[in-house]
Amino acid sequence: MNKLTQYGWNTSWDHEWSKEDRSLLKPGRITADFGQMYRVYTSEGEVWGELSGKMKHTLQSGDPSPAVGDWVELQLLEGEGRGIIHGILDRKTSISRQKAGAKSAQEQLIAANVDILFLVTSLNDDYNPRRMERYLIMAWNSGVSPVILLSKADLCDDAEVKAAEMELIAPGVPVHAISALEDLGKDAVIGYLKEGVTVALTGSSGCGKSTIVNWLAGTSEQRTQGIREDDSRGRHTTTHRELFLLPQGGLMVDTPGMRELQLYDDDGGGWEQVFADIEAIGEGCRFADCQHINEAGCAVRVAVNAGEIDEKRLLNYRKTQRELQFQMKKEARSQRKMNRKDRSVKEPVRRKSSFWNSRLNEE
């Protein structure tokens, strides 16, 4: 198992593994997801993994597919350089978002068993505090520790001002202005990359995530390309999720850029944590159900008028609240639909059973 420690295996995972008889299986960590196939690191090296028939059937019921960072139960096929994935160990953390375009509430798992999440935004036209609030909600809900990276600091004359603005919307969250081009802030970032620690990168397309991976690795692990000058946006350079072992000893997951982050749920209380200042001031409102729009005695509106709260932050507070409430309703509708489907399958069986019972009673 020693080779696995650099990929995050520890006594906690060892204890989890020993709970069941897995003598015919080996643990492995998914390092890349290509849809039907996975790259998995094991104590015997890296192999290709595919799902067992039973797992494929289970996933059809709506369970999330294995994700980069997952620890899996693997049956190695000797001499073939591949294995069959029979199960997933319980995740310690999972970074999720609402699946884009889905009519019902559907979780899209981005990465699993991540310790630290680097929230990346570049200091050009991509810079957007309101978007960062959404990323922070996702981070807190995932159970990971967020760190904000302001990339491309060489393109900005007031990087310190932008960093201070981010610190205001994310109290207690580390904020670092960095530049791969000028090698700025590298020591601060490397400080998070300890052996066995998994760090994931997320942010909009073109914010410099792949550049950061290459910068820290000292090699061209990820392909990069330029951004459009008119809107500072990039195309999806990274097309799949992948986990890299860095020379500093840490692990890093690069993910495709997000043009839009749709929040999935708020089980971890991320929304309240991001907007804790507004929630605290709101306790002073006259009405317990105050929406902070134009109600009499609204303490939040008083704070906005006094310049203590940014009006745009309050608007995002209400917008993300509505979005999460809507997702909860969609999830409830999906659950009711599944329950009706289950009943429709079971009902004919019950009717048939009742028919034969009545015949037996007559006899």
UniProtKB/TrEMBL annotation:
Domain CP-type G, residue spans: 103-261
Biased composition (Polar residues): 354-363
Main localization category: cytoplasm
InterPro entries, sorted: G_CP_dom (IPR030378), NA-bd_OB-fold (IPR012340), P-loop_NTPase (IPR027417), Ribosome_biogen_GTPase_RsgA (IPR004881), RsgA_GTPase_dom (IPR010914)
Region of interest called Disordered, as start-end residue ranges on this chain: 329-363
Family: Belongs to the TRAFAC class YlqF/YawG GTPase family. RsgA subfamily.
Stated role: One of several proteins that assist in the late maturation steps of the functional core of the 30S ribosomal subunit. Helps release RbfA from mature subunits. May play a role in the assembly of ribosomal proteins into the subunit. Circularly permuted GTPase that catalyzes slow GTP hydrolysis, GTPase activity is stimulated by the 30S ribosomal subunit.
Record's protein name: Small ribosomal subunit biogenesis GTPase RsgA
